[in-house]
Amino acid sequence: MSYFLFIVKSALEDFKRSKMQTFLTSLGILIGVFAVVTLTAMGLGLKKYISDQFDSLGTNTLFVAPGKLLQSGGFGASSLLGNRFDLKDLNRLKRVRSITAITPLSSKSGEAKGSRKSEFVTIFFSSEAFFDITGFEIDKGRFLDKSDIDKRAKVLVAGPKIAEKLFGSINEALDKKVSIDKVTFTIIGVIKSKGGGGFGGPDYDSYFFGPYTTGFIFDPDKKFIRFAIKTDENINISTVKEEVKNAMLKRYKDDEFSIVEPTEILSVVNDIFGIMNIVLIAIASISLLVGGIGIMNIMYVTVSDKTKEVGIRRAIGARKNDILFQFIVEAVALSILGGALGLGLAYLGILLVQPYFPAYMDVTSVVLALGVSSAIGIIFGVLPARKAANLEPVEAIRYE
Amino acid sequence: MIRLEKITKSYKIDEETTFYALKESSIEIKEKEFVSIIGPSGSGKSTLMHLIGLLDKPSGGEIFIQGRKISNLNDDQISSLRNEFIGFVFQQFNLIPKLTVLENILLPSFYTRKKLNYDPHEKALELIKRFGLQDKENSYPNKISGGQQQRVAILRALIMEPKMILADEPTGNLDSKTGTEIMELLKTLNEKEKITVAIITHEVDIAAYGKRIIKIKDGKVEK
For residues A314 and B82, is the Cβ–Cβ distance under 8 A? Predict the structure, then answer.
């Protein structure tokens, strides 16, 4: 048996003899590691989820939104409150040559009555171009077409999730009537699942999609919340942006609208999560620091308790460094124990929230958690271990 | 083999008073000897034992081990001497409670920097068998008798094949029958294995096992 294994074994033997003390001591590290792993897993998951949402929109897409959507690294509040666009804007933008498709977007939420039950739903009102821009695929029935828009047809395309909820199955939903706020629609198609849902991004599977002209029933002002644009692949996207901007500037001031690419939103999302991660790590560091101090404290107690043992070991030939090493290994074992328990707990926690939240644990956080706990053991174990190593052999062995 | 020359050990009690545990005492222990150091409590014999065992440093004088000046050695070198040269046996056995009999016996071998020409694990098992501790190798010290514990301590002292065994009141915590067994064992080691044995005691009949007796009183060696 190597010396290293031997001292690890004897440290574990000590832990076995004082389970409660060991557990309480490692609790600080446990909580710290649990917090940092769980929170970063949630952050990571959320980030991945949002990225996936925007990735699915493709690269040749632009959004025109009211207000300043992206301001100094964050989403501007005015984008939710500011002025909204109308048909004049739509017609003006349609004349921009570098645009291949455009759809206005507005939405309406309300109670939908199906054959099975009622659900609170959201309808996205758009033109037939929406499906081309977003890359949705049809599963059953058909998409909206130009005549639906022209005729203000009371038809809807359903997401697969909401179709199932309201009618029991996707097949059942087709050609059925659904009434929302006293307006009765016919379901003409169901899209293929876009996945995701839950938190942080639109859950397209639970939405209805209808003609924007029909949406005016609910909005006599005939306003849109934004435009989604598909650009000509052969034209540089910044050129398109410039043309769209010039078109918009004919009616609005520079700060009354924004033109964003999904990739820009992604970089903002990345910035936000970068900052969030730093904050999380700072909070977790405090917990780990407190945990480390707890370990240092208990290691000082252990050194006192083991003065006699140190004396015996020194008498039979242990060097100062042997004693130093022994106590550092013990401190590291203690903090890794806490780290591993915290990691295990975090794993369980993540499994538990995964059905509701896109939490996602990566190898980096596992390696980091164990690495950080070892480092804490070493840093906070060194001083007590030095105290043990520097005990005078003769005094240590006389100690009772 | 080990020589203490005009050794003084003093402790400052306060600004004016200094206590002398040992005063200019000289002792020599030769190879293969069996020496008893006898003295009443407070005579300085424990201090002497700590100095011979290199657990403590003298305030004055010099200790030589096989001609080497101890004051020239650093802490690691002194640790190695304690590890390889001397085997300790204590009154309170001083086994480590959380380690098994076998692990206690092997402990010095974990600390050695010397390449051993034998396998300590095999040697420990062989010693355990030879000294009647078979079936106890995986027991913990608190599960065996005092006499057995002292035997484990002696085996721990023997595992590194030391030149000298230094025993401090080895029978002090044992009944007289077990004490006699332990003394006989030390005697055998001296006679058969040619290991130098130095024991420290306050009992005359224990001291009598020694082929030479050194008396110590009030911090001074009596001639």
Answer: yes
